[in-house]
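Lab notebook, bench 4. The sequencing result for the construct came back, and we need a structural model before the next group meeting so we can plan mutations. Quick request posted to the team channel:

Model the 3D structure of this chain.
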Amino acid sequence: MSQETVRTVLVTGGNRGIGYAIAEEFVRRGHRVAVTSRSGHGGPDGALTVAADVTDAASVDAAFTAVEAELGPVEVLVANAGITRDTLVMRMTEEDFTDVVDTNLTGSFRVVKRASKGMLKARFGRIVLVSSVVGLYGGAGQVNYSASKAALVGMARSLTRELGARGITTNVVAPGFIETEMTAVLPEQQQADYKKAIPAGRFASPDEVARVIAWVAGDDAGYISGAVIPVDGGLGMGH
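Done. Here's the predicted structure in token form:
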């Protein structure tokens, strides 16, 4: 494989879980990497961590300004920051719904909008929106989360039509069940049931998701845009 061009990469929510693994993978590949976290702490060694709340446009703007001053304009954006407020629809409050949408969907819009300025000027950009198998497969008790994650597909495809001629790609990566703190606390029987539904028969490691994201953001994937790439062991195929 040819040597990749070194890029400035920003991963939102890069202080833990999949986001941390994504940032770590870009660092390993020699890129200039920044992560956002709400506290301004966390993130892997070799990455710049800046404070940002993706529900606040001014906070997002300040974070980008700090990254640009330190590392240069953001060329690769991975919109990963997300929350869950799982509960059955009859018990779900409006706040449960709007908070999840504001972080997962509108938060992605805020960071994409801010990143697009530099990308348009450079006539280059890679935008990766981190969705979920639940976005297309559905999940009981996750009406808010799955709606927010499904909407990223429409966002990516509209961005592809808007920005595609300027050397900017936008893709969705949809992870399935990943070995994280969240899945580790599930009862053993529940974990076994989930694994039965996954053709691969196992959960993914965060690194497996990170490597796909790094690839789709790299030089080799320049003609892929508006795609939904599942990393789910076959769980959601056909969606």
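The mean pLDDT is 95.
Will bring this to the meeting.
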